[in-house]
Specification:
globular
Length: about 90
C-alpha cells in the first residue's frame, strides 16, 4: 500500500488503497469508502451508498455540518480513480 499525500482543506482530496477500501483525506477530514475485489484482484467495485459525510480524524465521527456536496463527491471520485490508476486497478462505482 502506498501512502497518499495529504490534501489541504481547500485543496483536492487524496486517496490511498488499503486492499479493502479507499481512505480519502482532505485536511483534517477523512472518510473510508468500502470496496470489494471481484474475480481478479485488480478489479474493484466501489460502494458509494454510505458516502454522505466527512469524518473527523480526531474522533472518526461524521459531523452534520460536513455533509458532502456534489463538488466534494466529484473530487472524491477523481481521487479514488487516480489512486486506482496508480495501483493498476480497474474500478466500477455502485
Amino acid at each position: 500500500m502506498k501512502a497518499a499525500s495529504s490534501g489541504s482543506r481547500r485543496g483536492k482530496p487524496s486517496a490511498a488503497w488499503t486492499g479493502a477500501s479507499f481512505e480519502v483525506r482532505k485536511g483534517s477530514r477523512m472518510l473510508v469508502v468500502a470496496a470489494v475485489t471481484q474475480g481478479e484482484e485488480s478489479h474493484v467495485l466501489v460502494e458509494l451508498d454510505a458516502v454522505t459525510h466527512w469524518n473527523h480524524e480526531a474522533n472518526g465521527e461524521p459531523q452534520e455540518s460536513d455533509e458532502l456536496s456534489i463538488e466534494d463527491l466529484h473530487a472524491i471520485l477523481e481521487a479514488i480513480e487516480a489512486e486506482a490508476d496508480e495501483q493498476g486497478l480497474s474500478i466500477d462505482f455502485e
